[in-house]
Amino acid sequence: MAPPLPQVVLLAKALAELQHVGVDSDVAARLGANIGALREGRGLTQQQMAKLAGVPRATWAHLESGSANPTLAVLHRAASALQVTIEELIRAPRPAVKHFPASTVPVRTRGSVSIRKLLPDPIPGMEIDRMELPAGARLVGIPHVAGTTEYLTCERGTLVLVAAGESWTLSPGDIVVFRGDQRHSYANPGDRAAVGYSVVVLARVV
């Protein structure tokens, strides 16, 4: 099966880079290092990855060596087998560990409610927030696009979710799943701060 047009364009650009520079180029080296790291991160051998990609083991070994001159088809098969984009195959390798001090994580406030992103990097199609509501606080949610699903869990204190004309009281550990494209609100009826986590899975816009 041929890759979709946008992927074809990206693959062609990467292929052109690899074919017009020497085997010692940064691009070829990044390709080899990234493919090797991605494979090892999945706990698979070169033989297993080659089988998943539908290429000879020797071809996969050449890719990881950084000296390969792959065809468009081989690059596409490697990216598909690793379930990554072509950009991830040729970009500069990410550090194995990156520390984000609390002071660097984005925090915003709506009224008296503090909302902090749980993860420093965005996840396509998903939003994950930590909400801290002082005693007696209420937060009106913003409806998302049709088909969105939201998961709300309580970590500390008591949270009351109002959605679809009904209310649900959450204690620590409780989870409520609801449509995120409707009017909803969160409230803390307790006498101490409450903490909850909201995971929003956005609907695909076709």
Q: Determine the mean pLDDT.
A: 85
Low-pLDDT stretches are 19-24
Q: Count every helix, treating DSSP H or I runs of 4 or more residues as helices.
A: 6
The N- to C-terminal Cα distance equals 22 Å
- The total domain count is 2
Could you state the CATH homologous superfamily of the largest domain? Jelly Rolls
Task: Give, in order, the helices and strands.
Answer: HHHHHHEEEEEEEEEE
Approximate helicity band:
25-40%
CATH architecture of the largest domain: Sandwich
Structural shape? elongated
The total of beta strands comes to: 10
Write the layout of secondary structure elements.
Layout: H1 5-19, H2 26-41, H3 46-53, H4 57-65, H5 72-82, H6 86-90, E1 107-110, E2 113-117, E3 126-133, E4 138-140, E5 149-156, E6 159-163, E7 166-170, E8 175-179, E9 184-187, E10 194-201
Antiparallel strand pairs: 1-2, 2-3, 3-10, 4-9, 5-8, 5-10, 6-7, 6-9
